[in-house]
Amino acid sequence: MLLLDGIGDYERARAAGGDQERAFSKFKKAVAAFEAERQDMDQVPGWGAAEAYVFLARSYLDHGDEVAARDALERSLLLAPEFLEARRLLKRITAG
Length: 96
Known about the structure:
Layout: H1 2-11, H2 20-39, H3 49-62, H4 66-79, H5 84-94
């Protein structure tokens, strides 16, 4: 739920109730929740964990933190190696 709420805040225009800072906080919490869940499981959650890292990376980029964004994207790709959006964003960061 945190991830979906965060996506809504991130994608929705501020005039329509969106808030990118609130989304950033929700993405951090979503990633932490997925990590906690993964500690209790033998497998990675089926949907959401890799996506949460990509949205967290976008938020880090919005804040000018390319290093943290790259780290989040690398985590996303560890969970879903073929995730094209993560690959695209990582390529954009590493290309300068």
